Amino acid sequence: MRDLIDAQSPRPFGYFVHHQGRGHAERCAAIANALPSSRPVRIFCARDDIFPPLREGVTITRIPSLFEPVGETPAGLGAISTPRTLHCAPLGWPGIREATARLAAFFHAENPALMICDVSAEIAQFARICSVPHVKVLQHGDRTDPGHLAAYEGAAGLLAPFHSDLAQPDWDASMRAKTCFAPGLGTAGSMPARAAARRQLGIPDDARIALVMSGGGGSGVSEAPLGVAARSFPDWHWRTIGAVQRDWHATLPPNLTHLGWVDTAAEHIAAADLVVSSAGNTTCAMVLAAERPWIVVPEWRYFDEQVAKAHALGRADAALHLQSLPASAHRWIEAVEQARSRHDPLRQRALAGRDGARVAARWLDDLADRIWHDPAHPERNPVHA
User: Fold this and answer.
1) Mean pLDDT calculated for residue range 43-51
2) DSSP state of 155
3) Fewer beta carbons below 10 Å: N end or C end of the chain?
């Protein structure tokens, strides 16, 4: 009888979403919309304006940010050290108490089948302490610290929004066994054709376009090296989308245009002859799907997330990985020539994957069923997208 009831009215999934950038929210929306319409999803996030459209049955509860203080914290509390099992757990923050109180009330009132964490090692451990099974979204980086390891080891499963060929060498067999790799998660999985994208953007077919992308998770790419790049290729038009850090000493040629934030990122990527970007998850998924020649330069992120992601892309022959933007004309020319000569669109297509949201949603539903109804639930990978 319990199985019949659960099949008719499945228990909700909880979903914590970090509000930095857009990738976390886009992944969440893709999964929530791909889950069966009968499965309620309760999203907890500090912002409710960063999500794509959500289906009926998916609700957002705003909670205070876990990373931004409200009011002043007594100096004595700040002097107490943080244990190695936690990353961001300052004392005396009423916002954190309010956020965890709302999560605990949800756990108590609705008894969720799973709590998905994208991302917070603290929220993952909090769910485990509250006796709620959690799924931790897996990101690249040096995450061998006790906090991340506790979140991973205590998880019912791990969800990686990228291809298994981009896994890090230090992820052992036990970690991989509980991981669902869902490449393309959070993106459409396909991109416009080059000719169609150029027609939409008004770009002539014979124009040579270099696109520089900056995601929403940081302060943007520095302007000065882009001026060097554009001067090094006067017959190309260099365009930027996203944030750009202005440099007083930058000398900007007329073939460099800053477009700022656009709603047509996919078209700009598809229309480009070369993409230069950071290594954010959504950016990487889109460039892979577009199969463009690519220079990837990681931005600073906690735990060297983008550094590790860029290394993975380089190892997989999906992009030319540079540690920083070239600082001279001859290095720019060398980098662009390398990126174009080693470009392998078939390899990029394989890594981009398809139906990442469908794969992740099916895996989550199956995982919830196994852990609640099968005492010997095997930890095994799903069929990858």
Assistant:
1) 96
2) -
3) N
